[in-house]
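(Structure overview)
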Amino acid sequence: KQVVVTEYGLHTAMKEAPAHPFSDTAKAKYMARAVAALFARPEVHRGYIYDLIDAKNEPDNNQFNFGLLRHDGTPTKAYYAIRNLMHLLCDADSTFEPRELRALVVAKGTGVRNFLVQKASGLFYLVLWQDAVCYEKPKPSNKYVCRDWDSPTVPVVLRFDEPIAKVRTYIPRPIGGDPDSGKMAASTLDAPASVSLDVPDELLVVEIVPGCRMPESFPGCNFKATA
């Protein structure tokens, strides 16, 4: 039967150490990973994030620190990470029938997860991440403040068995203080036969443009693929 996840979320109330708080950065990484993990499971029909906005300004109360938006409506890093992910993956054409991408993903390590989707434009999106801890929860030894770190990346090689016009990579979480950085390509390769990737402890989105002639007005292949 289909599964509905009625609520999932993480809070950032640091003084609620027994309730396992997260830093803003760790929350952004984990919430985007949670969205991807649910999306990758076909039996999950729907999932609800808890919650959209904090109801009160009580920084020490975990019940009022789950929001993607703070009590005054200002966005958190998790808000931008999920918004940018939606910007990359959302598609309006529900009648489109995707085709297979002739490619192989080879991970030189463990713990890497991935799924592949195709938009009606013909572009493919490969989403990769690794299930790795990227923070230390508050406890006496770190003065009850989350300590963030970046887990070592896992090398992955993406090999294509069909012509590819372009590959772009994205990190949805805002980096460097720019909330829109997750919507801008971190790297671009033209006509690659293979791509070497370093998969982090957060989402890495790989946009793959099949090797067809692209219209000038749209950066993608305007065709309906067949199986």
Residues 213-227 have pLDDT under 50 and may be disordered. Residues 32 and 63 are 21 Å apart (CA to CA). The helical segments are 24-39, 77-89. The radius of gyration is 19 Å.
